[in-house]
Write a structure and sequence with these properties.
The protein is α+β, with helices and mostly antiparallel strands. The protein is built from 8 helices and 12 strands. Strands 1, 6, 7, 8, 9, 10, 11 and 12 form an 8-stranded antiparallel beta sheet that branches. A two-stranded antiparallel ribbon has the order 2-5. A two-stranded antiparallel sheet has the order 3-4.
């Protein structure tokens, strides 16, 4: 009996050690070793909780593991198949790196359509009703370029900490793969509308948000090399994209069947230089 208890305690200690090593590798991969940034990505105000787990003062619990594995590119990070194996980080082998990256690592939400949705008039009602459900939380999200937003669905699982212009806290709850964009141009600025967007303001975009009537969306349309920001207007069976600037040419255009909605704007950040 004593030998069995001893072996069990040894297994528990080994599991705890492996979890700490996996946590350390996850911090290296996602945040370049920055524990404060990693803590914020998990929804904490700083890195104190993370440091306590690394030191062994706090256990790496199943709840924490689920939160980390829900982050982009971290699916099954703590699984039995990968724990104890070098992870994709500063000391990862090429084989381990190849194992850890790829679109297949995206969290499985049970929904087969991707983050970026093609929307035509004939599919509008179905798309709104079947909008993906996802766990939402406040955390830290990347400020990316409009070019990156166009292909976000294909690059998010390989997105590294240094690929973003910066990482910003979210004041509202959004899905795990949300991101920030910096507003460009004057098409969405109306001095008489407090909800409009000045050039340089930063918007938080949720790829899994529901694009309802009058919501602000990031959308790919014909004739544009990168997505644009517009307000979505639904009138009966017709759907339109509206530029808030009253002087903007073609302020309202009907959406085309091949338009691609990249996400829904949840909030904006205003900075004063």
């Amino acid at each position: 009996m004593r030998s069995w208890c001893y072996a069990t305690k040894m297994n528990e200690r080994e599991l705890a050690r492996q979890r700490i090593e996996a946590l350390r590798a996850a911090i290296d991969k996602l945040c370049g070793g920055n524990r404060t940034a990693f803590g914020k990505r998990l929804g904490y105000k700083d890195g104190a909780f993370v440091r306590q787990m690394l030191s062994g003062d706090r256990p790496v619990t199943e709840k924490t593991i689920r939160a980390i594995e829900a982050l982009p590119g971290m699916k099954n990070w703590f699984s039995e198949a990968t724990i104890g194996v070098p992870h994709h980080g500063a000391h990862a082998s090429p084989a381990a790196a190849e194992h850890k990256v790829g679109a297949s690592d995206a969290p499985n939400t049970g929904e087969k359509r991707g983050l970026i949705t093609t929307v035509g008039k004939n599919t509008w009602s179905r798309m709104v009703k079947s909008a993906e459900l996802d766990s939402q939380h406040q955390g830290t999200y990347p400020l990316i370029s409009w070019a990156q937003a166009r292909t976000w669905d294909s690059i998010v699982d390989n997105f590294a900490y240094g690929d973003a212009e910066q990482w910003l806290d979210s004041p509202v709850a959004v899905s795990q793969k949300s991101y920030y964009l910096r507003v460009r141009g004057e098409s969405m600025y109306d001095p008489a509308d407090h909800r409009s967007f000045r050039e340089g303001e930063i918007v938080l975009v949720d790829p899994k948000g529901t694009p309802d009537h009058r919501k602000f969306i990031v959308v790919m349309v014909d004739g544009e090399a990168e997505p644009i920001l517009r307000q979505l207007i639904s009138e009966g069976e017709r759907i339109y994209l509206k530029a808030l600037n009253p002087a903007w040419p073609e302020g309202i255009t009907e959406i085309q069947d091949n338009a691609v909605i990249c996400g829904v704007v949840k909030t904006k950040i205003v900075t004063y230089d």
